[in-house]
UniProtKB/TrEMBL annotation:
N-acetyltransferase domain ranges (all copies): 2-68
InterPro entries for the chain: Acyl_CoA_acyltransferase, GNAT_dom
Protein's organism: Jannaschia seohaensis
Record key words, sorted: Transferase
Protein name (database record): Acetyltransferase (GNAT) domain-containing protein
One Gene Ontology MF term: acyltransferase activity, transferring groups other than amino-acyl groups
Amino acid sequence: MGLHLTEGGAELELGIPLARAAQGRGLWQVAMRGVASPVGAATEAQRIVVSTDARNVAALRLIARLGLPLVDMPHETGRPEPVFHWTRPPSDVVSFPIAPDRSR
């Protein structure tokens, strides 16, 4: 798992790479749910940012089921890399809203 808090602490970039044998078993979703609230409580980050390769259709479907809006589509590597983020609610809540996965 990779975590990167931007300078000033406004955004937290989160990466959870999975070995091919671990994919398709719900582990990424469990990891995201396990990280979002504690990270929200431990930092002042206003957003958690997640990106993936546009060719990773399974990851794109999962990100959509979790309710992350698409916010950017940079082409810095020569191919589209969709960027999604959760935004902290404007309150004293320390968790990030992650929609329940209703696909199961």
